[in-house]
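FORM 12-B: Structure-to-Sequence Request
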């Protein structure tokens, strides 16, 4: 009987861990469905009255998805603040010089990552550049507010703030980075974006681990999306796409920028783990 109880307890812990990882996604999807459904109903009701609504579908999509992302980010922020109190895990300090590291990592991922996908042929698969039509067709202001601010904030609240911190309470850094990045990849729903999302998720999780502050991954993600949007608007990405030599050179240069930006991040992680180790030793001595 004790054996079956242990098995039930183990399965209960497994399901609890899975729920902890998936529930933030359900919150995001729920808010998105609610806002898009309400927006669709209003569009049908007002489409004949307000021709501008029907004439600018991409702008409407940007507005509704931006509202959904902001709403989800707020709800997840409230959940995270409650858990932060429960587990006594305050955020760490994010220094001003960290902004430069975020910028270097963002540019490195955006340009270097896309060049890597092109050189490996992954960019030729269906789904690559799927969001480009919406980005290039919608109002630039709405695109910036949604793609460069609201969406990164919501996604970071899901994958790096809530999910990653929950995983870190259960498993080691390596596994938490890989699992959260894998979920971030699957979330993008197609192979090219999943590959890019997995690499991006690893970098974002490392920033979260190093600084224990949502500001770090949020800034990287916002800058990364901003860089990608600017490249799309300026058509600079098309110039790189015409030459594999240019892509390889860009991969080396911007991959190097990413690597240099991550060196202080790894150093910060090492210092943090050393401090936590010392705190554990002091705490153990005080208990003797």
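FORM 12-B RESPONSE
SEQUENCE OUT:
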């Amino acid at each position: 009987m004790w054996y079956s109880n242990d098995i039930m307890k183990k399965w209960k812990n497994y399901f609890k861990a899975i729920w902890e990882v998936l529930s933030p996604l359900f919150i995001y999807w729920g808010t998105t469905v609610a806002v898009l459904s309400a927006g669709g109903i209003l569009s049908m009701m007002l489409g004949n009255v307000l021709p501008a609504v029907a004439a600018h579908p991409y702008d409407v999509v940007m507005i509704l998805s931006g509202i959904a992302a902001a709403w989800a980010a707020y709800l997840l922020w409230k959940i995270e603040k409650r858990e932060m109190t429960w587990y006594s895990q305050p955020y760490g300090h994010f220094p001003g010089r960290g902004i430069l590291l975020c910028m270097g990592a963002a540019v490195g991922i955006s340009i270097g990552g896309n060049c890597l996908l092109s050189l490996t042929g992954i960019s030729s698969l269906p789904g690559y550049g799927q969001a480009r039509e919406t980005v290039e067709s919608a109002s630039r202001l709405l695109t910036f507010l949604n793609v460069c601010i609201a969406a990164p904030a919501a996604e970071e609240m899901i994958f790096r703030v809530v999910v990653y911190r929950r995983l870190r309470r259960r498993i080691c850094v390596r596994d938490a980075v890989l699992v959260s990045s894998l979920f971030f990849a699957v979330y993008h729903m197609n192979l090219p974006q999943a590959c890019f999302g997995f690499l991006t998720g690893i970098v974002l999780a490392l920033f979260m681990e190093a600084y224990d502050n949502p500001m770090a991954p949020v800034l990287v993600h916002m800058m990364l999306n901003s860089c990608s949007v600017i490249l799309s608007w300026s058509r600079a990405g098309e110039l790189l796409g015409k030459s594999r030599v240019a892509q390889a050179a860009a991969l080396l240069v911007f991959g190097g920028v990413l690597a240099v930006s991550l060196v202080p991040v790894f150093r910060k992680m090492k210092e943090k783990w050393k401090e936590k180790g010392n705190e554990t030793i002091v705490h153990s001595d005080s208990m003797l």
